[in-house]
Each structure stands twice: as C-alpha cells, then as structure tokens.
Write a structure and sequence with these properties.
Helix content: over 70%
Largest sheet: none
Strand content: under 5%
Protein name: 14-3-3 domain-containing protein
Distance between the termini: 60 Å
Pfam families: 14-3-3 (PF00244)
Number of helices: 9
Family: Belongs to the 14-3-3 family.
C-alpha cells in the first residue's frame, strides 16, 4: 500500500469512527501530494470539512444565542464569560477555514485539470469565506463576503460547462444564493440565481438514471423551497 492509499484508508477509518478532525487531516496529506483527487477523495474532503466546520458553526450559534439571553436578563458576568468562549470558537473556525482556503489555492486548484473539480474547489472556497462572514463584523465581514462572492462567481462561470443537473453545479448555485440572501442581503439576486438553476435542471431531470436523479432532486427541492420563500421577500423591494 503506497502513501496515498494509506491516507485514503486512514481517512475512511476515521470517518467510520466519527473522528472527523483526523479524517480531514488525512485528506489534507493527500492534497499536499499535489495530485488530481479522485471523486471519492473529493467526497472524503467534503465530508471531513462539513463535519469539522459544521460542529464549530453549531457551537458558535449556540453560544451566541446563550450570550444574548444572558444579556437580556442583565447577567453581564455570565454574558462576558460566554463571549470569551464564543471568541475562542471563532478563532478555531477562522484557523480551520483559512487552512482549507490555503490548501485549495496552493495544492488543489493547481493540481486539477477537470472542470467539475475546479467548480467543486471554488464552491468550497466560497463556503469557507461565507462561514467567516457569518461571525465577523465590519471590514472583516465585508472582505470575507466579497471573497466568497468572488470564489462562487468563478465557480458559476466554470460550471456552465457542466450539465444543469450536475450535483456540484446545483450545490454551488444553492450555496451562492444563500450568501446573496443571508449575508449580502440581496434577496432578488438570490431568488433569480436559485430559480434559474432550478428551471434549467428540471426539463432534463428525466434523462438521469435513478440514483443520479435522486441526488439532484434533493438539491432541487431545497432550491425550490428557497425560491418560494424568497419570492415573498422580493415583493417588498
């Protein structure tokens, strides 16, 4: 078993044990070999990132809510302690996201020649900057949001070479539209991006096999839910 195979096996083993930090570390080792990741290896990267970053985001949301409640009760000492803990989580989340962004820029993008992989990495880069924009404020928030939009926009342009039903293309459209609505406060742009992605995919959905159709339908259902929700918001503009 060569080094790459060993890292893949270790990543899968860590996934089964739900040790996602270690899983992500093993996939990083593969990326730093400066090789084109297979679809399976990309999925390991996605799962590792989703779980590691997702846990930190959930901690941040919970602590932020607790802090607000303590402030509302006038318990400033408790609120201060929670705020310190929240800032610790923010620091950890910043480190993780910046590390992934660096991995993408220095190793993953330079090592790929496949359109789907390029779209995948630009989406992941946009996601990381979007997460940073969620908890930062002022100039740092604006910078993170702008970098997220830039990465997503590059991905959207590259995704034009993929089928409208492609899972990576659909998930990019979904995540980009969430940035536009939730962070940038552009509900109209979010609405039309999500609607266009949905409208382009639906007519050719029946051309897919059952397994591919199932994956695309899940994303299309979320896009449609957002389109319906945001349609009410844009009536106010």
């Amino acid at each position: 078993m060569d080094a790459r195979q060993d890292f893949v096996y270790s990543a899968k083993l860590a996934e089964q044990a739900k040790r996602y930090n270690e899983m992500l570390d093993h996939v990083k080792y593969i990326a730093k070999l400066d090789v084109e990741l297979t679809t399976g290896e990309r999925n390991l990267l996605r799962i590792g990132c989703k779980n590691v970053v997702g846990a930190k985001r959930e901690s941040w949301r919970m602590l932020s809510s607790m802090e607000e409640k303590e402030q509302a009760k006038g318990k400033e000492f408790n609120a201060k302690r929670i705020a310190e803990y929240r800032r610790k989580v923010e620091s950890e989340l910043t480190s993780i996201c910046n590390d992934i962004i660096l991995l993408i820029d220095d190793h993953l993008l330079p090592s790929t020649s496949q359109c789907e992989s390029r779209v995948f990495y630009h989406r992941m880069k946009g996601d990381c900057y979007r997460y940073l924009a969620e908890f930062n404020a002022g100039i740092e928030k604006e910078r993170a949001a702008a970098e997220s939009m830039k990465a997503y926009d590059i991905g959207i342009k590259a995704a034009s070479e993929l089928a409208p039903t492609n899972l990576v293309r659909l998930s990019l459209a979904l995540n980009f539209s969430v940035l536009l609505n939730d962070t940038m406060k552009f509900p109209k742009k979010a609405f039309f991006l999500a609607k266009n992605a949905y409208d382009e995919a639906i007519p050719i959905l029946d051309n897919l096999n059952e397994e591919s159709q199932k994956g695309s339908m899940l994303l299309l259902e979320i896009l449609l839910e957002n389109v319906k929700l945001w349609s009410y918001d844009i009536l106010e503009y």
